[in-house]
């Protein structure tokens, strides 16, 4: 049991987890996200596209980092950005759109400004990664 003793009272540690495991030092999951993404990239190139959704989200967030927030891209620009990461840039472009990280309108693309809506019960741990990523990449002021 973790916590401190004051007099005869045991006060629980507010950071301790109820399941008895040690507290997560990185509650947003950013470190885990980076470790997962790093397994799939070598020298800035995507070695293979992951099959598992949680892992795929980490990889797609890394790819979304190539886009500048609020900038509008023409399709050839998007293709060039993604081709630098993997030869199958069209599949990556579709995956970014399907996951809601990039929006396409009239042949123009831009990074979405908000965390994409998810269905109820759809991998809540992924939402932490997405929320942290959007807070640090999309919403941070550019200088």
Main sheet properties: 3 strands, antiparallel
- Estimate the strand proportion: 15-25%
Poorly predicted runs: 1-7, 10-25
Number of helices: 5
Distance between the termini: 47 Å
Arrangement of strands in the largest sheet:
5-7-6
Helix content: 25-40%
Kindly provide the radius of gyration, computed on alpha-carbon positions and rounded to a whole number of angstroms. Answer: 19 Å
Mean pLDDT: 78
Order of helices and strands: EEHEEHEHHEEH
Give the CA-based shape: globular
**Alpha-beta content class:** alpha+beta
Give the beta-strand count.
7
Describe what you observe in this structure:
- It is a single chain.
- With 143 residues, this protein is α+β, with helices and mostly antiparallel strands.
- It contains five helices and seven strands; from the N terminus they run E-E-H-E-E-H-E-H-H-E-E-H.
- Strands 5-7-6 form a three-stranded antiparallel β-sheet.
- A hairpin with a 2-residue loop joins strand 6 (102-105) and strand 7.
- The protein is globular.
- Residues 1-7 and 10-25 have low confidence and may be disordered.
């Amino acid at each position: 049991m973790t916590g401190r003793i004051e007099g005869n009272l045991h006060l629980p540690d507010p950071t301790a987890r109820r399941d008895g495991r040690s507290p997560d030092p990185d509650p947003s999951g950013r470190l885990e996200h980076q470790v997962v993404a790093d397994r799939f990239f070598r020298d800035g190139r995507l070695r293979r596209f992951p099959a598992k959704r949680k892992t795929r989200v980490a990889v797609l967030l890394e790819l979304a980092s190539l886009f500048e927030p609020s900038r509008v891209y023409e399709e050839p620009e998007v293709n060039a950005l993604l081709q630098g990461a993997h030869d199958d840039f069209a599949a990556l472009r579709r995956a970014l759109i399907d996951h809601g990280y990039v929006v396409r309108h009239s042949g123009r693309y831009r990074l979405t400004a908000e965390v994409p809506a998810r269905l109820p019960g759809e991998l809540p741990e992924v939402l932490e990664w997405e929320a942290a990523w959007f807070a640090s990449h999309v919403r941070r002021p550019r200088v």
